[in-house]
Model the fold of this input.
Amino acid sequence: MPTDTQPLEEAIHSIYQFIERTAERTESGITWETIDYANKPHHNISVFNGVGGIPFFLNEYYRQYGNETALELSQGAIDWCANFEGKHHKRGLHFGQTGIALAALHRAITLDEGIPDLCHANADVILNEPEGPITDLIGGEASNGMYLLKLWKHTGNKNYLHGAERCARWLEKQMVHDEHGTHCTIDPQNRMGGFPDKIYLGAAHGISGVAHFLACLNEQTQNDNWAKLAREIYGTLDAQARPARGGLNWPMFIGQEEMVRCQWSHGAAGIGLTYLAAHRAFGDSAYLETAVQAAEATYGYGDYRKNYTQSTGLASGGELLFEVYRVTGDLKWKERAVDFAHRCLVYKETTIDGYDAWPTDEKGLYSVDFDYGASGLGHFLLRVRSDGKISMPLM
Done:
């Protein structure tokens, strides 16, 4: 198992150079062509597969190496997203402008500066618009609540804490209590259309992401109501856990027979992270034990999706392995996270011009975005190289 982290640093610099080389400077800021979910090139603000998440990597790259151009690129990306006039969502961490606001908050924390107006402006949007209609952590009310909670921690403005609890109260109203336990669907009133009427379990779209937000909210407020609701949801998840590859995994939704995913968006890699939040919030060792079992399965699945990305690939699983190491101190998990990090490096390609290029989860297509591209991998590699001094910005 590889233990040398020097190749990881070389990959970090390669990713930065890829980002710097492909930057497009405009009157409104700096943008990049990324790849959308249909594998088509586009210019978009989303953290999911647009420009919005790139500053998370650039901010930490500056902090680690003091590269002033990285800081310029970071602010340029935030400016471009803030001024974007194309079709986009105002709310939601991975799909909306809330992700950009979090990137701006992350930058301010990195530089020990005041909180930018953009952060407050997006919080006002969340506070003033009706809650819902989506529940999930990737772009729904759980994600909006997480943003407000993070903003409150760094401003002390109780309006933001009250706003996070408002999100939680709306989520509580969407809960169903039946033979499966306590749960909700992605779009309970079918307001958006197109979402399956299934009870998803994963961190991105499912109830584990909702439970994660509620556990984090309880951690900050010590409100027993949020602890009770989160514990009920984790009870539903406990009942759906199944043995897999030496540990535990979950199907994508209740009623699915086969377990086809083990990644951040669906399966043990993401669900395990939410159990670590429960352990931190409630101090219950059973949650940590489940997270460790999720990590065992994640390591067993390995590079099953044949890509390196934060959403579906090796970085997705490596984040859980590394977080288990941070919580337990067991070096086995650090070694496994480093192993996953090294496996990511083989995906680097060289263009016909001799430049390094990093693909999405589709060979031959290149992107610098966070969830499906190079900046998300770069952030994971920086976390491994820093031995845990850098946290996950979106969880």
Notes: The chain has a mean pLDDT of 96. The chain has 14 helices and ten strands. The first strand starts at residue 24 and ends at 26. Strands lie at 24-26, 29-31, 34-35, 41-42, 176-178, 181-183, 242-244, 247-249, 349-350, 356-357.
